[in-house]
Amino acid sequence: MSAAAALPTGAAAFLLRYVRRRPLGFGGLFALVVAAAACSVGAQYGMKLIVDAMAGADRAAADVWSPLVLFVGLIALENALWRAAGWLGCNTIVDTGVDVRLDLLDHLSGHSMQFFSEHFSGSLGNRITATAGGCGAIFGALAWTIAPPCVDFVGAVVVLLTIEQPMALALIGFVAVVALLVVCFGARGRALHQAYAEQGARANGELVDVVANVWTLKAFSARAREHARLACTFGDEAAAQRRSWHHLERTRMLHDALLWIMAGSMLLWSVSDWRRGALTAGDVVVVSALTFRILHGARELAFALVGTSQQFGAIAATLRAIGRVHAVRDPATPRAPAAVRGVLALEHVSYRYANGQRVFDDFSLVVPAGQRVGIVGPSGAGKSTLLALIQRLDDVQGGRILLDGRPIAELTQDVLRDCLAVVPQDVALFHRTVMENLRYGRADASDDEVVAAARAAFCDGFIRALPHGYDTLVGERGVRLSGGQRQRLSLARAFLKNAPVLLLDEATAALDTHSEREIQHALAQLMRGRTVLAVAHRLATISSFDRVVVLADGRIVEDGDPHALRARRGLFGSMWRLQAEGFADARIAS
Predict the structure, then answer these.
(1) Distance CA 175, CA 523 (A)
(2) DSSP letters for 323-392
(3) Which of 149, 370, 430, 569 is least enclosed by beta carbons within 10 angstroms?
Protein backbone atom coordinates (compact mmCIF):
# COMPACT_ATOMS: atom_id res chain seq x y z
CA MET A 1 0.00 0.00 0.00
CA SER A 2 1.29 3.45 -0.85
CA ALA A 3 2.07 5.66 2.07
CA ALA A 4 -0.21 8.30 0.59
CA ALA A 5 -3.17 5.99 0.03
CA ALA A 6 -6.23 6.82 2.09
CA LEU A 7 -7.72 4.31 4.49
CA PRO A 8 -11.50 3.73 4.60
CA THR A 9 -13.22 6.01 7.06
CA GLY A 10 -15.63 3.37 8.39
CA ALA A 11 -14.86 0.18 10.28
CA ALA A 12 -17.10 -1.94 8.01
CA ALA A 13 -15.41 -0.65 4.84
CA PHE A 14 -12.01 -1.20 6.47
CA LEU A 15 -12.84 -4.86 7.16
CA LEU A 16 -14.36 -5.37 3.71
CA ARG A 17 -11.12 -4.34 1.99
CA TYR A 18 -9.37 -7.35 3.59
CA VAL A 19 -12.19 -9.70 2.63
CA ARG A 20 -11.75 -8.49 -0.95
CA ARG A 21 -8.02 -9.02 -0.68
CA ARG A 22 -8.54 -12.71 0.15
CA PRO A 23 -11.91 -13.62 -1.41
CA LEU A 24 -11.12 -17.33 -1.75
CA GLY A 25 -9.88 -17.62 1.83
CA PHE A 26 -12.85 -15.87 3.43
CA GLY A 27 -15.35 -17.26 0.95
CA GLY A 28 -14.13 -20.80 1.55
CA LEU A 29 -14.10 -20.27 5.32
CA PHE A 30 -17.71 -19.12 5.49
CA ALA A 31 -18.83 -21.82 3.04
CA LEU A 32 -17.28 -24.48 5.28
CA VAL A 33 -18.85 -22.95 8.41
CA VAL A 34 -22.30 -22.79 6.83
CA ALA A 35 -21.99 -26.39 5.58
CA ALA A 36 -20.86 -27.61 9.01
CA ALA A 37 -23.74 -25.82 10.76
CA ALA A 38 -26.18 -27.23 8.19
CA CYS A 39 -24.89 -30.74 8.89
CA SER A 40 -25.56 -30.15 12.57
CA VAL A 41 -29.18 -29.20 11.88
CA GLY A 42 -29.49 -32.20 9.55
CA ALA A 43 -28.23 -34.46 12.33
CA GLN A 44 -31.06 -33.21 14.56
CA TYR A 45 -33.52 -34.19 11.87
CA GLY A 46 -31.80 -37.59 11.64
CA MET A 47 -32.41 -38.01 15.36
CA LYS A 48 -36.14 -37.33 14.76
CA LEU A 49 -36.22 -40.13 12.18
CA ILE A 50 -34.52 -42.52 14.60
CA VAL A 51 -36.98 -41.71 17.41
CA ASP A 52 -39.98 -42.06 15.08
CA ALA A 53 -38.71 -45.44 13.87
CA MET A 54 -38.10 -46.65 17.42
CA ALA A 55 -41.54 -45.42 18.56
CA GLY A 56 -43.32 -47.66 16.04
CA ALA A 57 -45.40 -50.59 17.22
CA ASP A 58 -43.49 -53.24 15.25
CA ARG A 59 -39.90 -53.12 16.44
CA ALA A 60 -38.79 -55.99 14.21
CA ALA A 61 -39.94 -54.23 11.06
CA ALA A 62 -38.68 -50.78 12.09
CA ASP A 63 -35.91 -49.38 9.85
CA VAL A 64 -33.63 -47.64 12.34
CA TRP A 65 -30.42 -48.30 10.45
CA SER A 66 -30.96 -45.87 7.60
CA PRO A 67 -31.61 -42.83 9.85
CA LEU A 68 -28.81 -44.03 12.14
CA VAL A 69 -26.34 -44.08 9.24
CA LEU A 70 -27.59 -40.63 8.18
CA PHE A 71 -27.19 -39.32 11.74
CA VAL A 72 -23.67 -40.72 12.22
CA GLY A 73 -22.58 -39.68 8.72
CA LEU A 74 -23.74 -36.10 9.21
CA ILE A 75 -21.89 -35.87 12.54
CA ALA A 76 -18.70 -37.17 10.93
CA LEU A 77 -19.05 -34.74 8.01
CA GLU A 78 -19.76 -31.85 10.41
CA ASN A 79 -16.56 -32.55 12.35
CA ALA A 80 -14.51 -32.78 9.15
CA LEU A 81 -15.93 -29.48 7.90
CA TRP A 82 -15.22 -27.73 11.22
CA ARG A 83 -11.61 -28.91 11.15
CA ALA A 84 -11.20 -27.75 7.56
CA ALA A 85 -12.73 -24.39 8.51
CA GLY A 86 -10.35 -24.13 11.46
CA TRP A 87 -7.32 -24.76 9.25
CA LEU A 88 -8.43 -22.31 6.55
CA GLY A 89 -9.50 -19.71 9.13
CA CYS A 90 -6.15 -19.94 10.90
CA ASN A 91 -4.25 -19.11 7.73
CA THR A 92 -6.65 -16.49 6.41
CA ILE A 93 -7.33 -14.55 9.62
CA VAL A 94 -3.74 -14.63 10.90
CA ASP A 95 -2.39 -13.42 7.55
CA THR A 96 -5.02 -10.67 7.52
CA GLY A 97 -3.83 -9.53 10.95
CA VAL A 98 -0.33 -9.12 9.50
CA ASP A 99 -1.75 -7.09 6.60
CA VAL A 100 -3.71 -4.84 8.95
CA ARG A 101 -0.66 -3.99 11.04
CA LEU A 102 1.53 -3.35 8.00
CA ASP A 103 -1.11 -1.20 6.29
CA LEU A 104 -1.73 0.88 9.41
CA LEU A 105 2.00 1.30 10.04
CA ASP A 106 2.51 2.26 6.39
CA HIS A 107 -0.21 4.90 6.61
CA LEU A 108 0.96 6.10 10.02
CA SER A 109 4.54 6.59 8.83
CA GLY A 110 3.24 8.81 6.02
CA HIS A 111 1.96 11.46 8.42
CA SER A 112 3.87 14.68 8.97
CA MET A 113 6.05 15.15 12.04
CA GLN A 114 3.46 17.63 13.30
CA PHE A 115 1.04 14.69 13.60
CA PHE A 116 3.46 12.73 15.79
CA SER A 117 4.06 15.73 18.03
CA GLU A 118 0.34 15.73 18.81
CA HIS A 119 -0.02 12.00 19.70
CA PHE A 120 1.55 9.56 22.14
CA SER A 121 3.79 7.18 20.21
CA GLY A 122 2.84 4.39 22.64
CA SER A 123 -0.84 5.05 22.08
CA LEU A 124 -0.40 4.90 18.30
CA GLY A 125 1.49 1.62 18.51
CA ASN A 126 -1.11 0.14 20.84
CA ARG A 127 -3.89 1.23 18.49
CA ILE A 128 -2.28 -0.65 15.60
CA THR A 129 -1.88 -3.84 17.64
CA ALA A 130 -5.39 -3.56 19.11
CA THR A 131 -6.93 -2.94 15.69
CA ALA A 132 -5.25 -6.01 14.20
CA GLY A 133 -6.51 -8.05 17.15
CA GLY A 134 -9.97 -6.52 16.81
CA CYS A 135 -10.15 -7.41 13.10
CA GLY A 136 -9.16 -10.99 13.91
CA ALA A 137 -11.75 -11.13 16.70
CA ILE A 138 -14.50 -9.86 14.38
CA PHE A 139 -13.66 -12.30 11.59
CA GLY A 140 -13.42 -15.15 14.11
CA ALA A 141 -16.73 -14.21 15.70
CA LEU A 142 -18.43 -13.99 12.31
CA ALA A 143 -17.15 -17.43 11.35
CA TRP A 144 -17.56 -19.38 14.57
CA THR A 145 -20.08 -17.53 16.71
CA ILE A 146 -22.36 -15.45 14.49
CA ALA A 147 -22.77 -17.53 11.32
CA PRO A 148 -23.62 -20.90 13.01
CA PRO A 149 -26.65 -19.61 15.01
CA CYS A 150 -27.93 -17.90 11.88
CA VAL A 151 -27.67 -21.20 9.97
CA ASP A 152 -29.31 -22.98 12.90
CA PHE A 153 -32.22 -20.57 12.73
CA VAL A 154 -32.68 -20.99 8.99
CA GLY A 155 -32.37 -24.77 9.34
CA ALA A 156 -34.87 -24.82 12.19
CA VAL A 157 -37.37 -22.88 10.10
CA VAL A 158 -36.94 -25.33 7.20
CA VAL A 159 -37.39 -28.33 9.51
CA LEU A 160 -40.39 -26.82 11.27
CA LEU A 161 -42.00 -26.06 7.92
CA THR A 162 -42.03 -29.83 7.28
CA ILE A 163 -43.58 -30.45 10.72
CA GLU A 164 -45.96 -27.58 11.43
CA GLN A 165 -45.99 -24.36 9.41
CA PRO A 166 -47.61 -22.11 12.10
CA MET A 167 -44.79 -23.05 14.49
CA ALA A 168 -42.18 -22.10 11.87
CA LEU A 169 -43.87 -18.74 11.24
CA ALA A 170 -44.09 -18.12 14.98
CA LEU A 171 -40.37 -18.83 15.34
CA ILE A 172 -39.58 -16.35 12.57
CA GLY A 173 -41.69 -13.66 14.21
CA PHE A 174 -40.26 -14.33 17.67
CA VAL A 175 -36.65 -14.16 16.49
CA ALA A 176 -37.35 -10.99 14.47
CA VAL A 177 -38.80 -9.24 17.54
CA VAL A 178 -35.90 -10.39 19.76
CA ALA A 179 -33.31 -9.29 17.19
CA LEU A 180 -34.94 -5.88 16.74
CA LEU A 181 -35.11 -5.21 20.47
CA VAL A 182 -31.53 -6.37 21.11
CA VAL A 183 -30.13 -4.38 18.17
CA CYS A 184 -31.97 -1.20 19.19
CA PHE A 185 -30.94 -1.57 22.82
CA GLY A 186 -27.38 -2.46 21.90
CA ALA A 187 -27.01 0.46 19.48
CA ARG A 188 -27.57 2.84 22.39
CA GLY A 189 -24.31 1.58 23.88
CA ARG A 190 -22.12 2.27 20.83
CA ALA A 191 -21.01 5.64 22.21
CA LEU A 192 -20.09 3.96 25.51
CA HIS A 193 -17.99 1.34 23.73
CA GLN A 194 -16.20 3.99 21.65
CA ALA A 195 -15.54 6.10 24.75
CA TYR A 196 -13.99 3.07 26.44
CA ALA A 197 -11.75 2.45 23.40
CA GLU A 198 -10.61 6.10 23.43
CA GLN A 199 -9.88 6.05 27.16
CA GLY A 200 -8.00 2.76 26.81
CA ALA A 201 -5.76 4.15 24.07
CA ARG A 202 -5.11 7.30 26.11
CA ALA A 203 -4.27 5.31 29.25
CA ASN A 204 -1.87 3.06 27.34
CA GLY A 205 -0.20 6.10 25.83
CA GLU A 206 0.23 7.72 29.25
CA LEU A 207 1.73 4.52 30.64
CA VAL A 208 4.22 4.13 27.79
CA ASP A 209 5.16 7.82 28.13
CA VAL A 210 6.00 7.32 31.81
CA VAL A 211 8.03 4.16 31.13
CA ALA A 212 9.92 5.90 28.29
CA ASN A 213 10.81 8.77 30.66
CA VAL A 214 11.67 6.66 33.70
CA TRP A 215 14.99 8.48 34.17
CA THR A 216 13.17 11.79 34.58
CA LEU A 217 10.75 10.13 36.99
CA LYS A 218 13.65 8.96 39.16
CA ALA A 219 15.70 12.16 38.86
CA PHE A 220 12.85 14.32 40.15
CA SER A 221 11.57 11.86 42.77
CA ALA A 222 8.26 11.76 40.91
CA ARG A 223 7.20 8.14 41.50
CA ALA A 224 4.41 9.13 43.87
CA ARG A 225 3.28 11.95 41.57
CA GLU A 226 3.14 9.72 38.51
CA HIS A 227 1.44 6.98 40.53
CA ALA A 228 -1.30 9.43 41.49
CA ARG A 229 -1.56 10.79 37.95
CA LEU A 230 -1.82 7.33 36.39
CA ALA A 231 -4.27 6.27 39.08
CA CYS A 232 -6.54 9.09 37.92
CA THR A 233 -6.05 8.15 34.24
CA PHE A 234 -6.65 4.45 34.90
CA GLY A 235 -9.65 5.38 37.03
CA ASP A 236 -11.18 7.26 34.08
CA GLU A 237 -10.52 4.23 31.86
CA ALA A 238 -12.05 1.88 34.43
CA ALA A 239 -15.15 4.09 34.72
CA ALA A 240 -15.56 4.03 30.93
CA GLN A 241 -15.09 0.26 30.95
CA ARG A 242 -17.70 -0.19 33.69
CA ARG A 243 -20.24 1.91 31.77
CA SER A 244 -19.61 -0.17 28.65
CA TRP A 245 -19.72 -3.44 30.57
CA HIS A 246 -22.90 -2.57 32.49
CA HIS A 247 -24.68 -1.77 29.26
CA LEU A 248 -23.57 -5.14 27.88
CA GLU A 249 -25.00 -6.92 30.91
CA ARG A 250 -28.32 -5.12 30.57
CA THR A 251 -28.44 -6.13 26.90
CA ARG A 252 -27.70 -9.74 27.83
CA MET A 253 -30.41 -9.75 30.52
CA LEU A 254 -32.99 -8.53 28.02
CA HIS A 255 -31.84 -11.10 25.47
CA ASP A 256 -31.92 -14.00 27.94
CA ALA A 257 -35.40 -13.11 29.16
CA LEU A 258 -36.82 -12.92 25.65
CA LEU A 259 -35.23 -16.21 24.60
CA TRP A 260 -36.51 -17.96 27.76
CA ILE A 261 -40.02 -16.89 26.84
CA MET A 262 -39.51 -18.08 23.24
CA ALA A 263 -38.06 -21.47 24.20
CA GLY A 264 -40.74 -22.13 26.83
CA SER A 265 -43.51 -21.21 24.41
CA MET A 266 -42.16 -23.46 21.65
CA LEU A 267 -41.86 -26.43 24.01
CA LEU A 268 -45.35 -25.95 25.45
CA TRP A 269 -46.70 -25.70 21.93
CA SER A 270 -44.99 -28.90 20.72
CA VAL A 271 -45.96 -30.95 23.82
CA SER A 272 -49.57 -29.78 23.54
CA ASP A 273 -49.67 -30.84 19.88
CA TRP A 274 -48.19 -34.22 20.79
CA ARG A 275 -50.88 -34.77 23.41
CA ARG A 276 -53.48 -34.05 20.72
CA GLY A 277 -51.75 -36.46 18.35
CA ALA A 278 -50.77 -33.72 15.89
CA LEU A 279 -47.01 -34.35 16.36
CA THR A 280 -44.97 -37.53 16.73
CA ALA A 281 -42.46 -38.17 19.49
CA GLY A 282 -39.68 -37.52 16.96
CA ASP A 283 -41.25 -34.18 16.10
CA VAL A 284 -41.19 -33.17 19.77
CA VAL A 285 -37.56 -34.30 20.06
CA VAL A 286 -36.44 -32.29 17.04
CA VAL A 287 -38.41 -29.20 18.13
CA SER A 288 -36.86 -29.47 21.61
CA ALA A 289 -33.36 -30.01 20.21
CA LEU A 290 -33.60 -27.16 17.73
CA THR A 291 -35.19 -24.83 20.28
CA PHE A 292 -32.44 -25.39 22.83
CA ARG A 293 -29.83 -25.20 20.09
CA ILE A 294 -31.23 -21.84 18.99
CA LEU A 295 -31.45 -20.73 22.64
CA HIS A 296 -27.82 -21.64 23.31
CA GLY A 297 -26.58 -20.30 19.97
CA ALA A 298 -28.53 -17.07 20.34
CA ARG A 299 -26.94 -16.44 23.72
CA GLU A 300 -23.48 -16.90 22.19
CA LEU A 301 -24.62 -14.79 19.26
CA ALA A 302 -25.64 -11.97 21.58
CA PHE A 303 -22.29 -12.05 23.35
CA ALA A 304 -20.50 -12.07 19.99
CA LEU A 305 -22.56 -9.19 18.64
CA VAL A 306 -21.86 -7.12 21.73
CA GLY A 307 -18.14 -7.92 21.60
CA THR A 308 -18.11 -7.19 17.88
CA SER A 309 -19.77 -3.85 18.56
CA GLN A 310 -16.94 -2.99 20.94
CA GLN A 311 -14.34 -4.04 18.38
CA PHE A 312 -16.04 -1.95 15.71
CA GLY A 313 -15.84 1.01 18.09
CA ALA A 314 -12.12 0.45 18.67
CA ILE A 315 -11.43 0.14 14.92
CA ALA A 316 -13.43 3.30 14.22
CA ALA A 317 -11.42 5.16 16.89
CA THR A 318 -8.16 4.01 15.30
CA LEU A 319 -9.27 5.11 11.84
CA ARG A 320 -10.18 8.53 13.22
CA ALA A 321 -6.76 8.86 14.83
CA ILE A 322 -4.47 7.20 12.26
CA GLY A 323 -6.54 6.95 9.09
CA ARG A 324 -6.89 10.67 8.44
CA VAL A 325 -5.59 12.00 5.13
CA HIS A 326 -1.87 12.78 5.09
CA ALA A 327 -0.90 16.42 5.39
CA VAL A 328 2.22 15.73 3.28
CA ARG A 329 1.39 13.74 0.15
CA ASP A 330 3.35 12.37 -2.74
CA PRO A 331 2.43 13.74 -6.19
CA ALA A 332 -0.01 11.70 -8.28
CA THR A 333 2.52 11.66 -11.15
CA PRO A 334 5.98 11.99 -9.56
CA ARG A 335 8.92 13.03 -11.68
CA ALA A 336 12.04 10.90 -11.79
CA PRO A 337 15.08 12.90 -10.66
CA ALA A 338 18.11 13.37 -12.84
CA ALA A 339 21.63 13.34 -11.41
CA VAL A 340 21.39 15.58 -8.33
CA ARG A 341 23.87 18.45 -8.16
CA GLY A 342 22.57 19.85 -4.88
CA VAL A 343 21.32 23.37 -5.66
CA LEU A 344 18.79 24.34 -2.97
CA ALA A 345 16.43 27.28 -3.28
CA LEU A 346 13.61 28.52 -1.07
CA GLU A 347 11.35 30.99 -2.86
CA HIS A 348 8.96 33.20 -0.86
CA VAL A 349 8.31 30.45 1.67
CA SER A 350 5.63 30.92 4.33
CA TYR A 351 5.06 28.51 7.20
CA ARG A 352 3.16 28.54 10.48
CA TYR A 353 2.88 25.97 13.25
CA ALA A 354 -0.44 24.27 13.93
CA ASN A 355 -1.13 26.76 16.75
CA GLY A 356 -0.89 29.64 14.25
CA GLN A 357 2.56 30.85 15.31
CA ARG A 358 4.40 32.32 12.32
CA VAL A 359 7.83 30.90 11.54
CA PHE A 360 8.56 32.09 7.98
CA ASP A 361 6.84 34.74 5.91
CA ASP A 362 8.08 35.40 2.36
CA PHE A 363 11.40 33.72 3.17
CA SER A 364 13.91 33.21 0.34
CA LEU A 365 17.33 31.58 0.28
CA VAL A 366 19.56 30.13 -2.45
CA VAL A 367 22.38 27.67 -1.75
CA PRO A 368 24.57 26.83 -4.77
CA ALA A 369 25.76 23.28 -5.32
CA GLY A 370 28.74 22.36 -3.18
CA GLN A 371 28.46 25.37 -0.87
CA ARG A 372 28.79 24.89 2.89
CA VAL A 373 26.32 27.11 4.73
CA GLY A 374 26.06 27.54 8.49
CA ILE A 375 22.64 28.43 9.91
CA VAL A 376 22.80 30.31 13.21
CA GLY A 377 20.54 32.47 15.29
CA PRO A 378 18.78 32.63 18.64
CA SER A 379 16.44 29.85 19.79
CA GLY A 380 13.11 29.94 18.01
CA ALA A 381 14.51 31.65 14.92
CA GLY A 382 13.40 28.76 12.67
CA LYS A 383 16.72 26.98 12.09
CA SER A 384 15.60 23.38 12.68
CA THR A 385 12.25 24.08 11.03
CA LEU A 386 14.14 25.17 7.91
CA LEU A 387 15.91 21.79 7.72
CA ALA A 388 12.61 19.97 8.38
CA LEU A 389 10.89 21.76 5.48
CA ILE A 390 13.74 20.90 3.12
CA GLN A 391 13.17 17.22 4.07
CA ARG A 392 9.38 17.65 3.56
CA LEU A 393 8.70 16.48 7.10
CA ASP A 394 5.99 19.09 6.72
CA ASP A 395 4.87 21.16 3.74
CA VAL A 396 5.27 24.89 3.29
CA GLN A 397 2.02 26.86 3.27
CA GLY A 398 3.22 29.37 0.73
CA GLY A 399 6.03 29.61 -1.81
CA ARG A 400 8.10 26.59 -2.77
CA ILE A 401 11.38 24.78 -2.18
CA LEU A 402 13.45 23.62 -5.15
CA LEU A 403 16.24 21.08 -5.60
CA ASP A 404 18.25 21.67 -8.76
CA GLY A 405 15.48 23.99 -9.97
CA ARG A 406 12.72 21.38 -9.49
CA PRO A 407 10.05 21.80 -6.78
CA ILE A 408 10.60 19.10 -4.17
CA ALA A 409 6.81 18.60 -4.06
CA GLU A 410 7.10 17.01 -7.53
CA LEU A 411 9.27 14.22 -6.09
CA THR A 412 8.09 11.42 -3.89
CA GLN A 413 9.17 11.84 -0.30
CA ASP A 414 11.39 8.76 -0.42
CA VAL A 415 13.13 9.93 -3.61
CA LEU A 416 13.74 13.37 -2.11
CA ARG A 417 15.14 11.96 1.13
CA ASP A 418 17.43 9.61 -0.79
CA CYS A 419 19.18 12.80 -1.93
CA LEU A 420 19.68 14.00 1.65
CA ALA A 421 21.91 12.79 4.46
CA VAL A 422 20.73 14.10 7.83
CA VAL A 423 22.52 14.16 11.17
CA PRO A 424 19.93 15.27 13.75
CA GLN A 425 20.49 16.78 17.15
CA ASP A 426 18.39 14.09 18.86
CA VAL A 427 19.83 10.85 17.51
CA ALA A 428 17.33 7.98 17.39
CA LEU A 429 18.59 4.39 17.27
CA PHE A 430 16.64 1.15 17.04
CA HIS A 431 16.91 -1.57 19.67
CA ARG A 432 19.08 -3.55 17.27
CA THR A 433 22.77 -4.23 16.82
CA VAL A 434 25.29 -1.52 16.06
CA MET A 435 25.79 -3.04 12.60
CA GLU A 436 22.05 -2.91 11.84
CA ASN A 437 21.77 0.69 13.03
CA LEU A 438 24.72 1.77 10.92
CA ARG A 439 23.44 -0.05 7.85
CA TYR A 440 20.24 2.00 8.13
CA GLY A 441 22.22 4.62 6.23
CA ARG A 442 22.29 2.33 3.17
CA ALA A 443 20.53 -1.01 3.32
CA ASP A 444 22.65 -2.66 0.60
CA ALA A 445 26.00 -1.70 2.12
CA SER A 446 28.48 -4.49 2.74
CA ASP A 447 30.03 -5.09 6.17
CA ASP A 448 33.32 -3.63 4.93
CA GLU A 449 31.56 -0.46 3.78
CA VAL A 450 29.81 -0.13 7.14
CA VAL A 451 33.10 -0.52 9.01
CA ALA A 452 34.79 2.02 6.70
CA ALA A 453 32.02 4.55 7.48
CA ALA A 454 32.43 3.88 11.21
CA ARG A 455 36.16 4.52 10.95
CA ALA A 456 35.55 7.74 9.04
CA ALA A 457 33.26 8.90 11.87
CA PHE A 458 35.83 7.87 14.52
CA CYS A 459 33.53 5.32 16.15
CA ASP A 460 35.18 2.04 15.11
CA GLY A 461 37.31 2.10 18.26
CA PHE A 462 34.54 2.36 20.82
CA ILE A 463 32.36 -0.09 18.84
CA ARG A 464 35.02 -2.80 19.01
CA ALA A 465 35.33 -2.17 22.76
CA LEU A 466 31.65 -3.03 23.25
CA PRO A 467 30.84 -6.53 24.63
CA HIS A 468 29.97 -7.95 21.20
CA GLY A 469 31.50 -5.33 18.94
CA TYR A 470 29.35 -4.55 15.94
CA ASP A 471 26.85 -7.20 17.06
CA THR A 472 26.11 -5.43 20.36
CA LEU A 473 22.49 -4.44 20.98
CA VAL A 474 22.31 -0.70 21.67
CA GLY A 475 19.07 -0.78 23.73
CA GLU A 476 15.88 1.17 23.19
CA ARG A 477 16.71 4.45 21.42
CA GLY A 478 20.40 3.61 22.00
CA VAL A 479 20.15 3.89 25.80
CA ARG A 480 23.23 1.69 26.31
CA LEU A 481 25.45 4.22 24.53
CA SER A 482 26.52 7.68 25.59
CA GLY A 483 25.19 10.76 23.83
CA GLY A 484 28.49 11.27 22.06
CA GLN A 485 28.61 7.67 20.90
CA ARG A 486 25.08 7.90 19.51
CA GLN A 487 25.98 11.07 17.66
CA ARG A 488 29.05 9.44 16.13
CA LEU A 489 26.91 6.55 14.90
CA SER A 490 24.58 9.08 13.32
CA LEU A 491 27.53 10.67 11.55
CA ALA A 492 28.68 7.25 10.37
CA ARG A 493 25.25 6.65 8.82
CA ALA A 494 25.61 9.93 6.94
CA PHE A 495 29.05 8.82 5.69
CA LEU A 496 27.54 5.54 4.54
CA LYS A 497 24.58 7.16 2.78
CA ASN A 498 26.91 9.38 0.72
CA ALA A 499 24.11 11.73 -0.41
CA PRO A 500 24.76 14.92 -2.44
CA VAL A 501 23.09 17.17 0.17
CA LEU A 502 24.11 17.06 3.83
CA LEU A 503 21.92 18.52 6.60
CA LEU A 504 23.52 18.87 10.04
CA ASP A 505 21.42 19.87 13.04
CA GLU A 506 23.87 20.41 15.91
CA ALA A 507 25.85 17.40 14.68
CA THR A 508 28.63 17.81 17.29
CA ALA A 509 26.56 19.02 20.23
CA ALA A 510 27.03 15.86 22.32
CA LEU A 511 30.78 15.51 21.73
CA ASP A 512 33.62 16.46 24.04
CA THR A 513 36.31 18.86 22.80
CA HIS A 514 38.77 16.12 21.75
CA SER A 515 36.08 14.12 19.95
CA GLU A 516 34.75 17.25 18.31
CA ARG A 517 38.17 17.98 16.79
CA GLU A 518 38.27 14.46 15.35
CA ILE A 519 34.75 14.74 14.00
CA GLN A 520 35.43 18.17 12.49
CA HIS A 521 38.26 16.60 10.53
CA ALA A 522 35.96 13.77 9.43
CA LEU A 523 33.20 16.23 8.54
CA ALA A 524 35.62 18.19 6.39
CA GLN A 525 36.13 15.03 4.33
CA LEU A 526 32.40 14.26 4.28
CA MET A 527 31.40 17.80 3.20
CA ARG A 528 33.84 17.95 0.32
CA GLY A 529 31.94 18.39 -2.95
CA ARG A 530 28.54 18.38 -1.22
CA THR A 531 25.92 20.99 -0.49
CA VAL A 532 25.83 21.46 3.28
CA LEU A 533 23.38 23.21 5.57
CA ALA A 534 24.49 23.05 9.18
CA VAL A 535 22.59 24.41 12.17
CA ALA A 536 25.10 25.22 14.89
CA HIS A 537 25.12 26.88 18.28
CA ARG A 538 28.87 26.34 18.64
CA LEU A 539 29.95 28.97 16.16
CA ALA A 540 33.49 27.61 16.00
CA THR A 541 32.18 24.55 14.15
CA ILE A 542 31.16 26.68 11.15
CA SER A 543 34.04 29.16 11.21
CA SER A 544 35.59 27.53 8.14
CA PHE A 545 32.33 27.36 6.15
CA ASP A 546 31.85 29.21 2.89
CA ARG A 547 28.93 31.20 4.21
CA VAL A 548 26.88 31.88 7.33
CA VAL A 549 23.18 32.77 7.32
CA VAL A 550 21.93 34.42 10.52
CA LEU A 551 18.22 34.02 11.27
CA ALA A 552 16.08 35.99 13.69
CA ASP A 553 12.29 35.79 13.91
CA GLY A 554 12.16 33.73 10.71
CA ARG A 555 14.08 36.31 8.66
CA ILE A 556 17.64 36.49 7.33
CA VAL A 557 19.32 39.35 9.18
CA GLU A 558 22.89 38.61 8.08
CA ASP A 559 24.39 36.58 5.26
CA GLY A 560 28.01 36.31 4.28
CA ASP A 561 31.53 35.01 4.92
CA PRO A 562 31.92 34.01 8.61
CA HIS A 563 35.17 35.98 9.00
CA ALA A 564 33.58 39.10 7.56
CA LEU A 565 30.52 38.72 9.78
CA ARG A 566 32.70 38.34 12.88
CA ALA A 567 34.32 41.70 12.17
CA ARG A 568 30.96 43.47 11.99
CA ARG A 569 29.01 44.75 14.93
CA GLY A 570 26.02 42.63 13.99
CA LEU A 571 24.21 39.70 15.58
CA PHE A 572 26.78 37.09 14.49
CA GLY A 573 29.66 39.17 15.84
CA SER A 574 27.97 39.66 19.21
CA MET A 575 27.16 35.93 19.42
CA TRP A 576 30.78 35.08 18.62
CA ARG A 577 32.12 37.44 21.28
CA LEU A 578 29.70 36.14 23.90
CA GLN A 579 30.82 32.57 23.27
CA ALA A 580 34.48 33.59 23.35
CA GLU A 581 33.97 35.39 26.66
CA GLY A 582 32.15 32.37 28.03
CA PHE A 583 35.08 30.10 27.15
CA ALA A 584 37.49 32.56 28.77
CA ASP A 585 35.40 32.77 31.96
CA ALA A 586 35.25 28.99 32.08
CA ARG A 587 39.04 28.71 31.85
CA ILE A 588 39.48 31.28 34.66
CA ALA A 589 36.93 29.50 36.87
CA SER A 590 38.66 26.17 36.40
Answers:
(1) 77
(2) SSPPSS---SSPPPP-S----EEEEEEEEE-TTS-EEEEEEEEEE-TT-EEEEE-STTSSHHHHHHHHTT
(3) 569
Closest residue by Cα to residue 135 from 311, 326, 357: 311
Compute the half-sphere exposure of residue 118: CA atoms within 13 Å on the CB side of its CA: 10
Query: Are 46 and 67 contacting, i.e. CB atoms less than 8 angstroms apart?
Result: yes
The pairing of beta strand 531-535 with beta strand 358-367: unpaired
pLDDT digits (tens, 9 = 90+) for 327-376: 788 887 777 777 788 899 999 999 988 778 899 999 999 999 999 999 99
Q: Are strands 547-552 and 555-560 parallel, antiparallel or unpaired?
A: antiparallel
**pTM score, whole prediction:** 0.72
Beta strands at 420-423 and 406-407: parallel, antiparallel or unpaired: unpaired
Pairing of strands 406-407, 398-403: antiparallel
Percentage of residues in the chain having pLDDT higher than 90: 24
Whole-number CA gyration radius for the chain: 35
Query: What is the rounded distance in angstroms from the CA atom of residue 48 to the CA atom of residue 270?
Result: 14
CB atoms under 10 Å from CB of 388, counted, come to 20
DSSP helix/strand/coil, 502: strand
Q: What is the mean pLDDT of residues 307-320?
A: 82
Instruction: Determine which helix (DSSP H) or strand (DSSP E) holds 553, and give its type and residue range.
Output: none
The DSSP secondary structure of 440-453, one letter per residue, reads TT-TT--HHHHHHH
CB-CB neighbours of 396 under 10 Å: 20
How far apart are alpha carbons 382 and 360 in whole angstroms?
Answer: 8
| Residue 475, amino acid | G
Phi, psi of 383 (to 5 degrees): -65, -55
pLDDT digits (tens, 9 = 90+) for 120-139: 776 788 888 889 988 998 99
Pairing of the two strands 358-367 and 372-376: unpaired
- Write the CB contacts of 298 (distance below 8 Å, at least 6 apart in sequence): 149, 175, 178, 255, 259
Torsion of CA 12, 121, 393, 430, to 10 degrees: -120
Answer positive or negative: Cα dihedral of 54, 56, 61, 66.
negative
Handedness of CA 158, 162, 165, 168 (dihedral sign): negative
Amino acid (1-letter code) at residue 380: G
- In angstroms, the CA 416 to CA 418 distance is 5
Buried b (16+ CB within 10 A) or exposed e, 1-15: eebbeebeeebeebb
